[in-house]
């Protein structure tokens, strides 16, 4: 069984399943995910599209849906225990599922470490009691878990393999009806409905300001697999003059045509870094959620690209700092200040080096298969 609660986890889980099937095509997979897991043959007991939320207030607002999903997976574990439960990120939900699995004697592999090193680090010992193995994406995470005497394996980041276009830049310009000579600005508002509600309006207002200074600029917005184009387009009616290209395509195809990107904090910031596209990070959650979380977080930056770099190489516009005027000024600098743009591209290349070599999905599949073999 695999449990993935949002678009990025769905993608990583799907690539894990593909790699597992290369090892042993007879392995059967069920659980929670979305389109990507469905495409590789997993039986979805729960589609995660409706419960992909972030923030304490947002979780409470969707509590019934989340609880229903948890109960359905828990019932499946109790009535037909899997040989291995693989939990992909989505930590609070998945830790509850892990507790149920352990009660049933099911082995638990947690893939993509919760950021306990960023907030509430004391929780690491509780995590150790719920899992049999932690598979981590970053080298510094391996040291963190080893120091806590928790079984851990550094498998490398799957995005090193995944973050690449499958079309040429010219093909994408033609498909998106863009002119090769014009500046293209990407709007990446996230994969959750709550992110769309809070982040997309900010990006649209920023785009309107940029359009005044760069009338020739084009704007493009890729729709995450967990969202519908109709849901996105409902926010665009007040900004028809921007003529935003809304596309359903691999995000990497979209990223490669962009001169600059405004992105919601999350996995996308790391994907953008791997493609070397200068960008700015934008994020806003419910005020109460922010008030609480701000007092728990022990690191300076929230953007994954900055966390990996161990310094701020991409500007972050979070909560009250997420003002269209400030974001527009940063994107304008990226577009117009050649030296600033070159420095950022150089720093993004260093982040890619830190993420290691290819083979992350194969590594996690080998680890999962070894746990399946010992179970058998």
Structure description:
There is one protein chain. The chain is α/β, with parallel strands linked by helices and 376 residues long. The chain folds into two domains: 2-158 and 359-375, Rossmann fold (3-Layer(aba) Sandwich), CATH 3.40.50; 169-354, Rossmann fold (3-Layer(aba) Sandwich), CATH 3.40.50. Helix content is 49%, strand content 15%. The protein has 18 helices and 13 strands. The chain has helices at residues 7-23, 35-39, 56-61, 63-79, 91-103, 124-130, 139-147, 159-162, 169-175, 193-213, 229-233, 251-255, 267-274, 287-294, 304-309, 324-336, 338-354, 360-375, and strands spanning 2-4, 30-33, 43-47, 84-88, 107-111, 133-136, 152-154, 184-188, 218-222, 245-247, 260-264, 279-283, 316-318. The strands form two sheets. The chain has a seven-stranded parallel sheet, with helices on both faces. Strands 10-9-8-11-12-13 form a six-stranded parallel sheet, with helices on both faces. Strand 8 (184-188), helix 10 and strand 9 form a beta-alpha-beta unit. Helix 1 (7-23) crosses helix 18, helix 4 packs parallel to helix 5 and helix 10 (193-213) crosses helix 16 (324-336). The chain is globular, with a radius of gyration of 21 Å. The mean pLDDT is 89.
Overall average residue pLDDT: 89
Q: What is the overall number of helices?
A: 18
How many DSSP-defined strands?
13
Could you say which overall geometry the principal axes of the C-alpha atoms support?
globular
Instruction: Give the biggest sheet.
Output: 7 strands, parallel
Radius of gyration (CA) equals: 21 Å
Helix content: 40-55%
User: What is the domain tally?
Assistant: 2
The span between the termini is 15 Å
Strand coverage percent: 5-15%
Going by CATH, the homologous superfamily of the largest domain would be Glycogen Phosphorylase B
Report the structural category.
alpha/beta
Provide the CATH topology of the largest domain: Rossmann fold
CATH architecture of the largest domain: 3-Layer(aba) Sandwich
Q: Using the coordinates above, name the CATH class of the largest domain.
A: Alpha Beta
Low-confidence stretches: none
Strand order of the largest sheet: 3-2-1-4-5-6-7
